[in-house]
Each structure stands twice: as C-alpha cells, then as structure tokens.
Amino acid sequence: MFERLLLAIDSSESSRKAVDVTSGLAKLAKSQVQVLHVRESVGGGRSGPIWPEGSSEASTFVDAAVATLKSAGVEV
Fold it and tell me: Among 25, 24, 19, which residue's Cα sits nearest to residue 64?
C-alpha cells in the first residue's frame, strides 16, 4: 500500500493524535515513517515573524513522536 509515510508535526494536540493514527497506518501497511517538524509564524510586523517554539522544543516534539512510533514497532 504505502512504503513510506511523512508525518509533519508541531506542538498541537492534533499532531499528537496524528502520531497515533500514523502509527496504526504504518503498522497496517508495513510502512516506514519519516517525522518532520513544521512551525508557523505568528504575528510579525516590523520585527519579523514570531515562532511559537524554538529548535530545542522542535527536537523534543520530534524525539517524542519517534519514541512513540518505535515503541509501537514502526520503522522510523
């Protein structure tokens, strides 16, 4: 069915749910998952965009998603 899946996440609750859905789909299809952190700029103006989370927070989200997927037996 699907050889590879791309899971794009941020710090939202929807992303946490997407990890679980992707885990189930990947196990069913025996797919490999790649995890990508995305972030949206908020506000802005003369000083430029404001990022809701920095790179260390992004690493935390990605690491948590990878750990969840691996513990479910998914290749990440």
Answer: 19
